[in-house]
Amino acid sequence: METRRLGTSDVKISPVLMGTWQAGKSMWVGVEDAETIKAIRAAFDAGITTVDTAEVYGKGHSEQVVAEALADVRDQVTYATKVFANHLKYDQVFEACEGSLTRLKTDYIDLYQIHWPSGSFKSEVVPIEETMSALNELKEQGKIRAIGVSNFSRAQIEEAMQYGRIDSLQPPYSLFWRQVEKDTVPYCVENNISILAYSSLAQGLLTGKFGRDHKFEEGDNRKDNKLFKGENYERAQQALDKLRPIAERHQCGLAQLSLAWLIAQPQTNAIAGARNTEQAVGNASAADVDLSADELTEIDAIGRLVTDQLDENPVMWDWD
């Protein structure tokens, strides 16, 4: 898999990234460490050289699992992790970074991201200038190689960019969730900020494995996902039926087709999680699906059957 440059940095990323929210286990069910470790390793073996995690995923458990899977090939992989919204004061950023370095068993983080803007989840509001000051210093010390943000609006990225270089944005983005395209994607393209799309398979909906009557177990965060509810879910099923013939033409699954469409969008890379080796290898194979301009347009139109009916709220879940 050919790598791409992250923003204007020296960091190289694979267009498909291994996502590891599920590796933390919190807000997921039926996840086993041994299987996750095998999946992360299988993703690496299949060409996915970039892994995305966060300190908040299972209170650091995800980072520990990543280290267990990849410590012996650390020099061949790109680590992206995140500092949470409650650790954005100057001293807290340093402390959080040290914690991530320890759990990841590394002396540098390739991409360090602000997970949610200050004030999210009732966290204390911290001026972005203060947070960026700490991140810039960590970069000067060589502890991090690039700075990114996640779940930021265009205005929030613009403000952060006043205090230092932002090389990536991590937004929710998939064929079925596209609010970021309205004004943020053009800004990222103009300023050479890489987009690392999370929930790139709409939390599994775009795999086509969930039937019309599917119900999630208690404790699974997807129970609260707007795309899995009511008319949105029915429209998604209709769209999936229209996508299947295109996937069959390419002899690939719906997941690979959806990821291939996403990484063909301007400046965009796709973070995809996997519970097992089969899913990990499948995600990697999306980089080999070559879609024509006409097919990209056709897929785009099918996706809009879902996205045109959604509200403007950029958060995918109905969280209290």
Automatic annotation (TrEMBL):
Gene3D superfamilies noted in UniProt: NADP-dependent oxidoreductase domain
Where does the UniProt annotation place the signal sequence?
none
Q: Which residues form the NADP-dependent oxidoreductase domain?
A: 16-302
Entry's InterPro entries? AKR, AKR_Detox_Biosynth, Aldo/ket_reductase_CS, NAD(P)_OxRdtase_dom_sf, NADP_OxRdtase_dom
Q: Which keywords annotate this record?
A: Oxidoreductase
Q: Which PROSITE patterns match?
A: ALDOKETO_REDUCTASE_2
Can you cite an annotated GO cellular component? Answer: cytosol
Q: Name one GO molecular function term.
A: oxidoreductase activity
Taxonomic superkingdom: Bacteria
Task: Supply the name of the protein.
Answer: Aldo/keto reductase
